[in-house]
Amino acid sequence: MNTLSKIKSNPFRFGTVVEGTFFTNRENELQMVIDIISGENHLVLISPRRFGKTSLVNKAIQQTKRPYIAIDLQSITSVLDFSIQLLRKVLKQYPYERIKHFIKRFKIIPTLSLNPQTNSIDISFQSGTESLDALSDVFQLIENIGEKGIKPIVFFDEFQEIVNIDKNLDKQLRSIIQYHKSVNYIFIGSYEGMMRDIFEKKKSPFYHFGHLLTLKKISYNDFYTFLNDRFKGFHKESELIAKQILSFSHCHPYYTQQLAWQVWNIIEHGSDAEIQKAVKNLIEMHDNDYERIWNSFGQTDRKILIGLTRKNISVLDKSTLELFGLSATSTAFSSLKRLLRQGYIIREKGYEFDDPFFREWIISMRELC
Ligand SMILES: Nc1ncnc2c1ncn2[C@@H]1O[C@H](COP(=O)(O)OP(=O)(O)OP(=O)(O)O)[C@@H](O)[C@H]1O
Ligand SMILES: [Mg+2]
């Protein structure tokens, strides 16, 4: 076993928000986020799943050292629940004693009680409370806090979910927060189409509400340095390992870290640094999921995905359509759109798989038949 493995723990992390030594670069994006939220602007941050939106925003907020209230709209079930969860987050940042005079101005005063089991505050509004009143009171509370002290940042994760919580909530929320000057809002979303509909369609209430930033993958050079620095001293072929990982992962932040983690793990257990072995292990781990996903696709989607497993091929070319038995460009195009919306493929320079392991799974599954 490599002696260094005894003293160093795996320096890669995937799945959770990353910070510190697990976070690489993004210097430009970080500066942009900080610049936007340092003035009176709001930020809209879009990227496919697991590109590092939350990690980036967290880091930016940490650097500003400002108070923040983060709320994931995926976890919200109704307008009243939105108000309650938001107020809970506010109370985590600001002690009740400091803000109670603002809460006393609410149209309906909520009941706050300490839950001895969780040691957190339970909040309820009396039945019959108009949920929009509650919501507007909580947002006004945040604005009031900002007027009197350091401007807080409110960030909504998975903001596109707003349209699923309640009809017209987008319109109502916009009318509540549009005059706020003492809060910066950050809207994060991973369904690009939905986010663009919300922030770029003229008829949408949030049309051009914030500065829109699209987060790309991490650049090859930055990721290469990140990987090489960590494998250096752990394996003599660190440069080759870094190159091979990136050649497979195409610099996707999450999958690069996942593969690097697995390669490290293999070396740590005394095997050769075989990228293919790491890939194989990860595919086997997700075999059931991939099978279930594959079985949920119709034939056109399957043909498109098979087409996309080929390198240097444009799936919309006539010759490709013929090769994969697709009848018309329009059918192929609507399949691409559907797969994009569902997050199975992403569009960078061209269309490509979001998950390079799924691509590999499809290739090996077809080879086995
Ligand atoms: N700057 C970075 N440096 C290195 N790895 C990163 C970076 N940003 C993200 N990652 C990798 O991507 C993973 C996902 O990051 P994060 O949760 O921030 O992305 P996200 O876009 O918010 O994801 P989701 O769409 O699931 O909300 C992290 O666990 C980490 O492995
Ligand atoms: Mg996130």
Mean pLDDT: 90
Strand order of the largest sheet: 2-5-6-1-7
**Total helical segments:** 18
CATH class of the largest domain: Alpha Beta
Outline: globular
Number of domain modules = 3
Q: Determine the strand fraction and express it as a percent band.
A: 5-15%
Query: SS-based structural class?
Result: alpha/beta
CATH topology of the largest domain: Rossmann fold
Instruction: State the helical fraction.
Output: 40-55%
Which sheet architecture does the biggest sheet show?
5 strands, parallel
What is the CATH superfamily label of the largest domain? P-loop containing nucleotide triphosphate hydrolases
Task: Summarize the topology.
Layout: H1 4-7, H2 27-38, E1 43-46, H3 53-64, E2 68-72, H4 79-93, H5 96-103, E3 111-115, E4 120-124, H6 131-148, E5 153-157, H7 162-165, H8 169-177, E6 184-189, H9 192-200, E7 211-214, H10 220-231, H11 238-249, H12 253-268, H13 275-285, H14 287-296, H15 299-309, H16 318-323, H17 329-342, E8 345-347, E9 351-353, H18 356-368
Parallel strand pairs: 1-6, 1-7, 2-5, 5-6
Antiparallel strand pairs: 3-4, 8-9
Helix pairs in contact: 2-3, 4-6, 6-8, 10-11, 11-12, 12-13, 15-18
Bound molecules: adenosine-5'-triphosphate and magnesium ion (MG).
Adenosine-5'-triphosphate binds next to helix 3 and helix 12.
